From TrEMBL:
Name the UniProt record assigns to this protein: HTH araC/xylS-type domain-containing protein
Database matches in SUPFAM superfamilies: Homeodomain-like
Key words of the record: DNA-binding, Transcription, Transcription regulation
Chain coiled-coil ranges: none
SMART domains: HTH_ARAC
Gene Ontology MF: a single term: DNA-binding transcription factor activity
Species of provenance: Mucilaginibacter pedocola
Domain HTH araC/xylS-type: 191-289
Length: 292
């Protein structure tokens, strides 16, 4: 595992994939390179588009676990905590990473990326593709592959254009999926709960807070979430806190007391008991295990 894997810059991604030519704002990784398989959650400073041509990948993105079978496309924004596990069927994939500054360099609208919720939304990270959809995605990635690292004089400009193409093509697929669908009330509440939890867990850990913001009673929320997912609202809250705690503890520049403070625990002792209850190790023991 890379040291302090919790947030990966472009340069750290290059190191992880053992790529030579330095890039500061975008990166393309072709098939044959191993993805970052690790049980430890991490983030990147980039937006990521993964084209899974075939094979199987296990993805944990924030609070959502998904087994993905190619052909599929995966979109993940910088704020999303993720981890990947390998399967017996080795994935055949290509990956395109880019920073917001790179994509927005020629645009007047600095909120352009905010329109595309599939980079951040729990429900939108993965699209299983039909044959024609897969063909269109493959065509764009073939263009990317034909330019990146081949000394093309206009490589940055073309890579930016291909980024726009990918975003608009993926958006069109999402729109076609949602057209005419009738939302399920229970699933809609579950989605709203998880999206709110992703934003607020670091400060609020009571079911009552989320129930109040979603205009339901705590009992109704817990029962509805349990019916949808098999876990209570309280279990989802604990899962979110633990996921963030594991990310923060990988950063050795943060003291355990500082991690506790960031997660709004009353003191380090309370945090330590909470962490050990859910992880089976104290925060210090967990941090030590990362270097073994």
């Amino acid at each position: 595992m890379l040291e302090q894997i919790s947030t990966l810059s472009i340069s750290k991604l290059q190191k992880a994939f053992d790529l030579a030519a330095p890039r500061k704002q975008y990166l393309f990784v072709d098939t044959g390179c191993e993805p970052l398989y690790t049980d430890e959650p991490f983030r990147t400073e980039t937006y990521s588009v993964v084209w899974l041509r075939q094979g199987i990948m296990h993805l944990q993105a924030d609070l959502t676990s998904t087994v993905i079978t190619g052909p599929a496309v995966i979109t993940i924004g910088p704020n999303v905590t993720r981890s990947f596990r390998r399967s017996d069927a080795r994935p055949d994939m290509q990956l395109f990473f880019f920073t917001a500054d790179f994509l927005l360099e020629t645009l007047a609208n600095i909120f352009y990326l905010d329109r595309y919720r599939f980079f951040e939304d729990n429900e939108g990270h993965v699209l299983q593709l039909h044959e024609q959809e897969a063909f269109r995605l493959a065509s764009i990635f073939n263009l990317v592959s034909g330019v990146f690292g081949r000394m093309h004089p206009n490589e940055p400009q073309l890579m930016r254009s291909y980024g726009y193409l990918l975003i608009h093509e993926i958006d069109a697929i999402h729109r076609s999926r949602s057209a005419g669908q009738q939302p399920d009330e229970g699933n809609l509440l579950f989605t709203r709960f998880r999206n709110l939890l992703t934003k607020k867990f670091w400060r609020h850990r009571t079911v009552g807070f989320y129930a109040s913001n979603l205009n339901v009673t705590p009992k109704y929320l817990s029962e509805a979430i349990k019916k949808q997912s098999g876990k209570t609202a309280g279990e989802w809250i604990n899962k979110a806190v633990m996921l963030e705690a594991r990310v923060l503890l990988q950063n050795r520049t943060l003291s355990i007391a500082r991690v506790s403070e960031r997660l709004s625990f009353s003191d380090q002792s309370v945090f330590g008991k909470f962490f050990k209850t859910h992880q089976g190790l104290s925060p210090a023991e967990y941090r030590k295990s990362l270097s073994q």
